[in-house]
Specification:
67% helix; mainly alpha; 381 residues
Length: 381
């Protein structure tokens, strides 16, 4: 999942990239995406909480997940990351196969990588060292979702041409919708998408029983839609590797984004946008915004060559798993370290203390990532 492993090499027809040959826009966009969950979100929420500004209060709500139906900015961070994993697949696989690696070896890499991601997911949710299987929660984690989406997209990309890939992706979205909408199960009213009372939740409980302890979810059925999100990224990566000129690539990315947004919002009139169940409408809407963000970063960074401003994001994006794991496991420690310096500010800043402390904690964490970047130390999967 790290960019060092993605092998993002631009084809000859692409605009010039950085000296390393990487598609800098992808590193920058990945870092920009991670930026919002490694401290910036806590700073914004703290500012919103202690301000009388209606604008800041509204901004703060954008950094909270919707409980069930609907969409906020914070609900787009996760699918954007999975989308970018998909973008890297055509580049990484072309590099590996072009370097003489066999498909069998590539399959081993795919499944080994997924297994490590699941392992890290169990580690970061705090369940790795539990000894009782009745209490072991392997049912859901962010990294597990990324692993499932990556495996599905990798297998489809390895075995199908572009047109069948599109058809299968559409089929996965429709199949997920049909199963969630029309299949009656105990405790589920057909056509009603309620927490704990839909087909996906029933299927997970049927197969896993009470194994889902901390994060009950319908991830077994959702493998269809996780894979579809990653495939949306694969289509973008295929487009960026194509022989089309830059203008046509940007037009296609824009058109794909618009098409997904229109289709997703129309579908949501019947099949709601529910991030917690990764519904088909959610896949399309999130993909639409992801296509537009990728197009914007690609045009500014790799086409126009404006790269200096991206450096803080590239530092994060090139060590994205390290950033995610480090902040997830040690954010509290960075907060305590920051308080050593901000504690004396309490009498002077009042309610702004939390925002200042989290800002310093995030800055200290970024310096660690910068040190790793300077020393070419990346957590690779």
């Amino acid at each position: 999942m790290t960019t060092a492993d993605s092998g993002m090499r631009a084809v000859a027809a692409a605009p010039a990239t950085a000296a390393s040959g990487r598609l800098v826009a992808l590193d920058a966009l990945r870092g920009w995406d991670m930026f919002w969950i490694i401290g910036a979100d806590r700073v914004i929420r703290a500012v919103a909480k202690n301000s009388d500004s209606q604008f800041l209060a509204s901004l703060g709500t954008q950094f909270e997940h919707v409980e069930w139906e609907g969409l906020r900015f914070y609900d787009l961070i996760f699918p954007l990351f999975l989308f970018m994993i998909g973008v890297s697949i055509p580049f990484a696989f072309a590099r590996r196969l072009g370097g003489g690696e066999s498909k069998k070896a590539l399959y081993k890499h795919i499944f080994a990588r997924a297994a490590v991601m699941v392992f890290f997911g169990m580690l970061i949710t705090g369940n790795l060292l539990r000894y009782s299987y009745s209490n072991l929660d392997i049912s859901y984690s962010v990294l597990q979702v990324l692993a499932l989406g990556y495996v599905v997209a990798s297998v489809l990309y390895m075995n199908l041409a572009l047109r069948p890939q599109i058809l299968v992706t559409a089929g996965m979205l429709v199949l997920f919708w049909a199963l969630m909408t029309f299949i009656p199960v105990p405790g589920h009213v057909v056509g009603v998408y309620a927490p704990g009372a839909n087909f996906g939740d029933w299927l997970n409980h049927l197969i896993l029983g009470n194994w889902q302890v901390k994060y009950p979810n319908s991830w077994i059925l959702n493998t269809l839609t996780y894979g579809a999100t990653a495939m949306m990224g694969v289509f973008a990566g295929t487009l960026l590797r194509s022989s089309l000129d830059t203008r046509k690539r940007l037009l296609w990315l824009g058109a794909l984004g618009a098409g997904c947004l229109i289709a997703g919002y129309l579908w949501s009139l019947q099949f709601p946008i529910i991030k917690r169940r990764w519904t088909s409408s959610y896949v399309l809407v999130a993909a639409g915004w992801s296509y537009w963000l990728l197009a914007a970063f690609y045009w500014v960074v790799d086409v126009k060559g404006y790269r200096k401003w991206t450096f803080p994001f590239v530092v994060v994006g090139m060590n994205s798993i390290g950033a995610y794991m480090g902040w997830g496991l040690f954010s509290g420690a960075f907060r305590r370290a920051a308080e050593v310096f901000t504690n004396g500010l309490r009498p002077y800043v009042g309610g702004w203390y939390d925002a200042a402390t989290w800002a310093l904690a995030a800055g200290m964490f970024w310096l660690v990532l910068y040190y790793m970047y300077r020393n070419r130390t990346f957590l690779r999967i």
